[in-house]
Amino acid sequence: VFDVDERIIVSPVAGIFAAIDALPSTVTAGTHIGFVRAGNDHVPVVSPFDGELVDVVAVDGERLEPYQRVAWLRAA
């Protein structure tokens, strides 16, 4: 059995990433960690998992593709 404790949070759409100002160290499913500006829309980037936020790998102003990794966390 293969058990992985790490999870990734991905961009829901293509666009320009902006992180929220105060990122929590622990997230629950549904926690917003940023937004992707796609045209006139600001699409939230949310964690689908509970866990400890280890790192946000996307930087403010970075152009992201759909499903590109934004952050990773350790599952709770």
Question: Helices, strands, pairings?
Answer:
Elements: E1 6-10, E2 15-19, E3 26-27, E4 32-38, E5 41-46, E6 51-56, E7 63-64, E8 69-75
Antiparallel strand pairs: 1-8, 2-4, 2-7, 3-6, 4-5, 6-8
Number of helices: 0
Q: Segments where pLDDT lies below 50 for 5+ residues?
A: none
Question: In one word, what is the shape?
Answer: globular
Overall structural class, as computed from helix and strand content, comes to: mainly beta
Q: What percent of the residues sit in helical stretches (DSSP H or I)? A: under 10%
| Multimerization state | single chain
For the sheet with most strands, the description reads: 4 strands, antiparallel
* Helix and strand pattern: EEEEEEEE
Please state the CA-atom Rg, rounded to the nearest Å. Answer: 12 Å
Provide the β-strand percentage band.
over 45%
Mean pLDDT across all residues, rounded? 93
Strand order of the largest sheet: 1-8-6-3
DSSP E strands, number: 8
